[in-house]
Amino acid sequence: MGFKCGIVGLPNVGKSTLFNALTQTAAAQAANYPFCTIEPNVGDVAVPDERLEKLAAIAGSKEIIPTRLTFVDIAGLVRGASRGEGLGNQFLANIRECDAIAHVVRCFEDGDITHVEGKVSPVDDIETIETELMLADLDSLEKRVQPLEKKAKTGDKEAKEAVDLMNRCLTLLRDGKPARQVQLSAEERRPFELLGLLSSKPVLYVCNVEEASADKGNSFSELVKKRAAEEGAVAVVVSAKIESEIAILPAEEQTEYLEAVGLDEPGLNRVIRAGYALLHLVTYFTVGPKEARAWTIEKGTKGPQAAGVIHTDFEKGYIRAETIAYDDYIANKGEAGAREAGKFRLEGKDYVVADGDVLHFRFAT
To answer: Cα separation of 132 and 155, whole Å?
Structure first.
């Protein structure tokens, strides 16, 4: 698995242009007017990982299969979306299905591209969307908590726990703070996720800058980075215009183009890395003559659950995992060399899979 990231933002900030570039398709109509994206466009992209190609070269793998990431281009939000303005209800429903939010923020001046609020102010734009998400959550929780409070008064333990969690979220929301700031115990994480709160989603701010600022950003993107740091979020600078130009070039010409504009990699790579860090994701590999494949799991995942990403039978019948660290696999030129060097390990059910592990699962059928 990868992760599902909803691309959101006010109209005319470059969401669809960025989506087209990231997925290298023309599926989303990029135009200079609000709501040009009526239905959420979904695009799967391969996660670039140079380690996979190196592993495949050593193993002589016939096929390379990267892990994948899903982007969802969601219709532009306007002030009042929580009350159904614009495409509000549809917008909010689509966000609930995503693991994280990539909030595209306009960080460039251009008199030819209108701004729905009449001015370029990225922090105000952030607050507009954040406010709409919090208002929607506030309305949702206030409706749900009342019947649960009656049940809690009868002594129902689960209802009491749910009411306590909801009230802590409501306190934050009424204070103008997103639900993701609530302090949770390990046992509360799953119930919290089931609340489906929009402002609980991890946020990645994508600062869409003009071409000249694509490498280091500008004064607008610095404001966004400061805001992100204050709330524990992540901010990445990208020029959607440059990314859209890179996307239509043949692979062999992309590197030359990137060098010409002062970049060492496409913005897609930066967005993915930031998204992985935001969601605490890591990658492990399965490698053989048939294929070399990357798999994405959450950091802290143990062997059986990591195996379950491939197939549920692997998790159910898990015995142990044949494990070689990526660096050891490369240094010893493959599995045989790693075995001879004593770098081949058998790990049990409590083993926490590390980023870059090359694994082969033993399981009972």
So the answer is: 35
What tokens does 226 get? 């400061």
CA distance 180 to 201: 7
Give the span between the Cα atoms of 94 and 8, in whole angstroms: 10
**CB neighbours of residue 280 within 10 Å:** 12
Angle CA 326–331–337, to nearest 5? 95
- Rounded (10°) angle between helices 122-152 and 157-174: 150
Measured from the Cβ of residue 295, the count of other Cβ atoms closer than 10 Å reads 21
DSSP 8-state assignment for residue 179: G
Higher per-residue pLDDT: 75 or 66: 66
In tens, the pLDDT along 103-140 reads 999 998 876 665 655 678 899 999 988 888 898 899 88
Q: What is the pLDDT of residues 236-248, one digit of tens each?
A: 999 988 988 888 8
Contact 205, 238 (CB under 8 A): no
